[in-house]
Amino acid sequence: MRTASVDKRKDLIRKFIKFGAVGFSGVFVDFSITWLAKDMVGCNQYLANSIGFLSAVVSNYLLNRVWTFKSKDPKVAAQFVKFFLVSMVGLAVNNGIIFLLNEQLGLNFYLAKLVATGVVMIWNFGANVLFTFKAR
């Protein structure tokens, strides 16, 4: 006989795996849009990067709302603002970890980025479970 806590844990693991898949798709969206804006349209690299990042945030929100968390919250705009705020904190943490590991400790940039991405994924998932997509 399965207990409710085992079912909750399995549901959380399933959501984490879906969240990771959505995040991976967000990387594809981010890099593709950035490349299009920078190399095809000729936008400034920072503007192109911002457009790509924001496109991924929108894509990730929609996929996480519909697929990962199956949210029925009618306050879509308010929920998106929460998701965006969580993403911005994640971006700040990501940059902070990269700065610490790469600039201060001399770790390879891409290895630092990999570590930062893992930490931020855990932050983003937890914050979105507890804040953005919290069951009512």
Structural write-up:
This protein is mainly α. The chain folds into 2 domains: 1-70; 73-136. The chain has 4 helices and no strands. Helix 1 runs antiparallel to helix 2 (45-68) and helix 3 packs antiparallel against helix 4. The longest helix has 38 residues, at 4-41.
Secondary structure elements and pairings:
Layout: H1 4-41, H2 45-68, H3 76-104, H4 109-132
Helix pairs in contact: 1-2, 3-4
- Termini separation comes to 27 Å
Global Rg: 17 Å
Secondary structural class? mainly alpha
The beta-strand count equals 0
Quick one: biggest sheet? none
Q: Number of DSSP helices?
A: 4
| Helix residue percentage | over 70%
Number of domains in the coordinates? 2
Write down the overall geometry.
globular
Name its key features.
single chain, 136 residues, mainly alpha, 2 domains
Summary of the model, kept short:
The protein is 85% helix and 0% strand. The protein is mostly helical and 136 residues long.
